[in-house]
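Lab notes, practical 5.
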Amino acid sequence: MTNQSSASEIEPVAVPKFYEFIPDILSYLSDGVERSNKEIYTAVAARSALSPKQMKQLMSNRRRLVYVDRISWGLTYLKQWGAVESPGRGRQKISDEGKKLANQYPQGLPSEIVAEIVRGVKSNSSTATPTQPAKSDTKNDVPKVAPSTSEPANVDESTPQELIDESIAQLESALVHDILERVRSISPGAFEQLVVDILLAMGYGGAEERGIVTQASRDGGIDGVIDQDALGLSKIYVQAKRYGEKNTVGRPAIQEFVGAVHAEGTQGVFITSSSFTTDAREFAKKLSGSTSVVLVDGDQLARLMVKYGIGVQVERTYTVKRIDEDFFDEA
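Output from the prediction step:
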């Protein structure tokens, strides 16, 4: 175990909303040239002057870049409105209606028109037929998009996937709060067993789940021991403190635990249902030599319980499906 945060974590930065990319997408495709999705993502990112940090920001699932997802959704809205069409797999080009719209606004789509397009697509998303742009003006053959008196801020700023992620995050946050209330009400002995169970669920202790809670009268400052190998040559020593929310763990408690770990081995994890003082965290972070200690506070503890299914159960499951490109590519 380590007491350092992952160096690969990218600090969250603000990335333009999906609808803010729509003007640049339409402008880039306005020359009528057919382009791949990848070309569009790269060009629109450049036109939007995204910073390196913005282009490295990952979605909550850690599988896709935020800017790519949002440009993709901006492209989807333009396609559903009728301004862009797909002549082939992963290929996009501006439609005749899109050209008319681009010609109508050569300096770029104003925000109120973007908002109208987004609202138009959303209002028709439950219909069986594709969304169509407004009928053309018979005099100049330019599609009419009625400017809205409402500001773009009234349009949902998140993509459908982001709305799902945000809802899940809200549900998890409420669940974490409820878990901590329950955890703080169990007995100290039950809390020690809970901590060992979580570490075993995370994979420590191997397939045989080699982990025990020590006897209360003989723990010597150690509440649990996890054997990392079958012979018990490598061990993780555990301290579990079931405290109330306002009863924080300070540096003296960490120093005492480090001493106990040092007398037995090299690795320790201190888990509490409350939180640690800044001094305690700094002390653990600056440990050098053979002993290392990881600190896990109440919030992180509850989130680990959710992630590894300790003390929780699945209420319902939703399946989100996407197109099978291989199926249609082979057809």
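Observations recorded by the TA: The CA atoms of residues 323 and 329 lie 11 Å apart. Residues 2-8, 126-144, 146-153 have pLDDT under 50 and may be disordered.
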